[in-house]
Design goal:
With 437 residues, this protein is α/β, with parallel strands linked by helices. It contains 14 helices and 19 strands. Helix 1 runs parallel beside helix 14 and helix 10 packs across helix 13. The longest helix is centred in the last third of the chain and has 14 residues.
Length: 437
C-alpha cells in the first residue's frame, strides 16, 4: 500500500471491523469506516430493552483461526458446551434429532427408522437439490417431517429449491447404527456430534464485545449512509450531504444494495435481481423471574409455531439480564417467496401463545417484550445462485470495489469467517502485503 493512501470501508459489522483492523495494521495510510447505524456490530450487534440486552439472533463463537482467537478470546468470556434440543409436536428431542429419537413415540421412531433403512444408495440417486440430499441422508419420512419443514421455516423456501453447496459440515449424517442406538430409551446418551465442541460468548457487552477493542481503535463515522459511489472519481456520497475521496474501497454492503449505486448495466443488474435473502423478525422477551429453558438454544419443527429457533440471552451471560431475571429471544424468518403472515402485534401474540403451549413461561412472567426486524438474515442458496453472485462480484471488482462479509460476498459465513473475510478483502485489494502473521 502506498504511503498516504486513503482506505474507505463501508459498514462496521464484523467484516468491516476486520477490514479496518487489517488496513490499520498495514500502517501505510489512513482507514475510515463508514456506518449508517449509530453503533458497530451489524448483524452481530445488539440492543437493550428495559435493562435486558439482546443480540440480533443467537451468536456464539467457535473460531479456530489464530487471528480470531487472538482477538475474540482475549475478551473475558463464558464457555458453553453445544448442547441444544428440538421441539416437535409436544416432544423435546436432543439435537441432532436424527441421532436422538428415543424421546419420540414408538410409532414415530419406527417410521423414521424404516425410512432410514430404505434409503437408496448414492449410485442410484442423482442429487439435484437439497431435498434429494436430505432424503438420501435420512430417508423420506424423516426428511419430509423434520428438515424439510425446518427449511421452509428457516430458509424461507422449499428444500427442492435449494442447492447443496452450503450444507457441507453443518448437518450431521449418521450411520444406521447411530440412528438405532439413539432410538432406545434405555441406551446411554448418544455422543455429542455437534460441529463445534465448545462455544464462547463475552461475559459483558453482548456478542459484539469480541471486536469492541478493535472497533474503538478505528476511525468509525456513525450515521454516515452511502447513497452514491463515483468509481471514476473515487468519491463516496452520503445521505448527510458529506463526501469522501478514497484510494481503495472495501464494502460490506449487501450486493443488491450496492450494485445500483455503481452500475447501469441492465444485464448485471438482472443478475443481482436473482439474489435473495431471508429477513428476520426478532421477538425478544425479558422475564421478571428466572425461567429454566430446556437448552441454551433450540429448534422448533412445528409449522403452526412461527419461530424456527429460540435462545436464552441470560444463559449466554448473566450480564444480559438484571439479577434474578431471565430472557428468551424468538427468531422468525421470512422471505419474498414466503412472506411474514402477521403484523407485529399479531406476531407478538402468536409468540406468547406458542411460548405457553411449549411450557417455556407464562404471560404473567413477561416483564418486557420487543419486536423488531432485520432485513438481511441469511443468503438463500437457490440453485445456480453462485453464478449470479459471481457476475456481480466480478463487476464490482472491475470498479475497484472489494466486497467482504456475509452479504458482501453473498455467502454463508459465520461471524469469525466474516471477520477474516474483511482481512482478506484488504489483502485482495493489495492494500497490505502481510496481515496478522
Amino acid at each position: 500500500m502506498r504511503q498516504g493512501a486513503r482506505i474507505a470501508v463501508i459498514g462496521a459489522g464484523f467484516s468491516g471491523i476486520g477490514a479496518g483492523y487489517a488496513a490499520s495494521v498495514s500502517r501505510g495510510g489512513t482507514c475510515t469506516v463508514f456506518e449508517k447505524d449509530a453503533t458497530f456490530g451489524g448483524l452481530c450487534g445488539g440492543f437493550s430493552v428495559g435493562g435486558f440486552h439482546f443480540d440480533k439472533a443467537v451468536h456464539l463463537s467457535f473460531a479456530k483461526e489464530p487471528l480470531c482467537q487472538e482477538i475474540f478470546f482475549s475478551v473475558p468470556h463464558e464457555v458453553h458446551q453445544p448442547e441444544s434440543t428440538n421441539y416437535k409436536s409436544g416432544y423435546w428431542v436432543r439435537h441432532p434429532a436424527q441421532n436422538n429419537l428415543r424421546a419420540l413415540p414408538v410409532e414415530e421412531r419406527i417410521r423414521i427408522i424404516e425410512g432410514f433403512a430404505a434409503r437408496r444408495q448414492v449410485d442410484d440417486v442423482e442429487v439435484a437439490n437439497y431435498q434429494d440430499w436430505l432424503r438420501l441422508q435420512f430417508g423420506d419420512y424423516f426428511s419430509e417431517h423434520y428438515p424439510e419443514v425446518y427449511t421452509r421455516k428457516y430458509w424461507g423456501t422449499r428444500a427442492e429449491e435449494l442447492s447443496t453447496t452450503w450444507c457441507s459440515g453443518r448437518i450431521y449424517q449418521p450411520s444406521l447404527r447411530e440412528v438405532l442406538f439413539g432410538s432406545y430409551p434405555d441406551a446411554d446418551a448418544s455422543a455429542n456430534v455437534y460441529y463445534a465442541k465448545e462455544m464462547r460468548y463475552p461475559k459483558q457487552g453482548g456478542y459484539r464485545a469480541f471486536v469492541q477493542r478493535v472497533a474503538e481503535q478505528l476511525d468509525i463515522r456513525y450515521g454516515w449512509e452511502v447513497c452514491a459511489i463515483d468509481t471514476e472519481a473515487k468519491v463516496l456520497h452520503f445521505t448527510n450531504g458529506e463526501q469522501y475521496a478514497y484510494d481503495e474501497l472495501i464494502s460490506t454492503m449487501p450486493l443488491p444494495e450496492i450494485l445500483p449505486l455503481v452500475c447501469d448495466d441492465e444485464q448485471v443488474l438482472a443478475e443481482a435481481a436473482q439474489l435473495a435473502a431471508t429477513s428476520m423478525a426478532l421477538v425478544s422477551v425479558g422475564f421478571r423471574r428466572e425461567i429454566a429453558p430446556p437448552a441454551l438454544w433450540f429448534y422448533v419443527y412445528d409449522e403452526d409455531i412461527p419461530f424456527a429457533r429460540v435462545h436464552s440471552p441470560s444463559m449466554k451471560s448473566a450480564w444480559n439480564a438484571p439479577q434474578g431475571k431471565s430472557s428468551l429471544q424468538f427468531e422468525v424468518y421470512y422471505s419474498e417467496e414466503m412472506p411474514l403472515a402477521y403484523n407485529d402485534g399479531e406476531l407478538q401474540e402468536k409468540v406468547l401463545q406458542s411460548m405457553e403451549r411449549m411450557g417455556l413461561a407464562t404471560r404473567d412472567d413477561v416483564e418486557v417484550i420487543d419486536v423488531r426486524h432485520v432485513k438481511y438474515a441469511n443468503v438463500i442458496f437457490y440453485q445456480g445462485m453462485e453464478q449470479h453472485r459471481d457476475v456481480v462480484l466480478q463487476y464490482l471488482a472491475s470498479k475497484g470495489i472489494h466486497s467482504c462479509g456475509r452479504f458482501g460476498r453473498w455467502d454463508y459465513l459465520w461471524s469469525h469467517q466474516s471477520f477474516v473475510s474483511g482481512v482478506e478483502a484488504v489483502k485482495r485489494g493489495g492494500i497490505a502485503n502481510r496481515i496478522g502473521g
